[in-house]
Amino acid sequence: MARIEPAETLFLAPLSRPAPGSAGRTGTWRVVKPVVDLDKCTGCMLCWLYCPENTILKTGEGKVRIDYEYCKGCGVCANVCPFHAIEMVVEG
Amino acid sequence: MPVMGLTGNYAVAHAVRLSRVEVVSAYPITPQTTIVEKLSEMIEKGELNARIIRVESEHSALAAVYGAASAGSRAFTATSSHGLLYMHEVVWWAAGSRVPLVMAVVTRAIGPPWNIHVDHQDIMDQRDTGWIISMAQENQEVLDLTIQAFRISEDPRVYLPMIVGLDGFILSHTRAPVDVPEQELVDEFLPPRRQPYVISPETNLVMGNIAPDDVHFLMRYSMAEAMEAAKRVIEEVDREWGKLTGRSYGGLVECYRCEDADYLAVITGSWSGDAKVAVDKLREEGIRYGVLRLRFIRPWPAEKIAVHAEGKKGVLVFDRAISMGGYGPLFSDVSATLYGSRISLEGVIAGLTGVDVKPRDFAEAMRRFASEVDEKGFVYKPREWLLPRKYRENPEKIREVARIWS
Fold it and tell me: CA-CA distance, A80 to A59, in Å (whole number)?
């Protein structure tokens, strides 16, 4: 059997560091897209916290912007927004 | 250092307080409940600066402290029996994630029928999960092991969660004098929390995502190796605690009158004390037993057992749990450890479901094994039943009970 490193130098944990585009341009999967009404957005960042794909970005103005390259259009952000500032619009 | 009259459960609570735990979550279940009751009281009085997360189940309780620990907090939970089984999935997740964490398991039988008394079935059910598993014999050791558990679990050579096992009611609800160390002493012994990674909203880190099968395989290997490393860490920690408090227990195992013994009784938990009383009694009869008390079930103290068993005529293993269709869990591992040694072996299933095993019961089993080995030269009996005394003395009673309970 091949020699394996002793435990002191071999540590593995089930961790991953997601990087943009590691699953391809997932924005093409989308059938509805979230559109942010910046007048209603208060910058509470709840959508940023909830987005399962990390495609909600903070803007310099303290609000949010959606990265449509990778957003799959799941709608979680629109669902959690307490101010109804995000609307899901049919693509096309 | 004040000596207090503490139940095993309160000894756990004081150890958790002294270890400066920051997050506690648990769901009430007998006989564990008074641990978190006491912790809740300590937090309310301002003696412990921690948050309690209220949850609706044990599955959530462990998930909550596992999350808190992943996020960088020293966290603690406690449970028993069905509660432990209910959290079993998260038991695996916490270990596989290599998150340092401590849980007290107050051992209790598993139903049906409904039962609240001690056996080891619940804690033995966790032995494949990757948690370090210790078992205390008395309340002082409960306190000492709980403090040590944070140190062992957070050691970078280990980074595995740890269970502190204490027997339901026998320890959990029985008061005994416990030397409670000063905060400064514990602070000197227990460094600030260390952990392999911290998950926060600011880190670009995901735990538990899918991994290639071959990488997953290496993770299992890495955990098994960390268990091996834990053996050394446990011995070091025991010695260091001994220097600070005068209490050293022998690390992975404690050996009572082993050196000049012809036979060894292998056992774990509070009933080890009764086995020691039996050993003293048998010495008066000229039968020389020693008790090898396993303080840790995982990592399995194979090397220690092999060394202590060497040259003995026989090893008698007492299990307070059974793998149905197999053997007592301790017996299986002892048998694997001593394979090829030609030392006589017997596994005894006793004390299940809270049935009391008294020193005279131990003595009876020990006497019988010793005489059989002396007579036959070599004995290998993997599963012998030490039934409750009234059924041993009056076997017809068994049929009678079966007629009612059927």
Answer: 19
> Which residue's entry shows tokens 């008061």?
B175
Q: Which domains does chain B have, with CATH numbers?
A: 3-245 (3.40.50.970), 253-393 (3.40.50.920)
Q: Provide the token pair at B202.
A: 């600011």
Could you give the angle at the alpha carbon of B177 between the alpha carbons of B171 and B181, nearest 5°?
105
Over residues B5-38, the pLDDT tens digits come to 999 999 999 999 999 999 999 999 999 999 999 9
Residue-level pLDDT at A21? 75
Q: B257 falls in which pLDDT band (50, 70, 90)?
A: very high
Q: How far apart are CA B106 and CA B255, in angstroms?
A: 24
Q: Following DSSP, what letter does each residue of B128-153 receive, concatenated?
A: TSS-EEEE-SSHHHHHHHHHHHHHHH
How much is the average pLDDT of B334-351?
Answer: 97
Q: CB-based contact (8 Å) between A4 and chain B?
A: yes
- Closest partner residue to B206 (CB to CB) among A10, A11, A15 is A15
For the residues B190-215, what does the mean pLDDT come to?
90
pLDDT, tens only, B264-286: 999 999 999 999 999 999 999 99
pTM for the full predicted model:
0.89
Give me the architecture of the A37-90 domain, per CATH. 2-Layer Sandwich (3.30)
Query: Does residue B107 contact residue B79 with C-beta atoms inside 8 Å?
Result: no
- State the pLDDT at residue A8: 58
Residue of chain B minimizing CA distance to A11: B222
Neighbours of A77 (CB within 10 A): 26
| CA–CA min distance A71, chain B (Å) | 17
Considering CB atoms only, which of B97, B209, B225 is closest to A6? B225
Distance of CA B104 to the CA centre of its chain: 9
- Of B140, B247, B179, nearest to B3 by C-alpha is B179
A52 — contact with chain B (CB < 8 Å)? no
Alpha carbons within 13 angstroms on the beta-carbon side of residue B326 total: 11
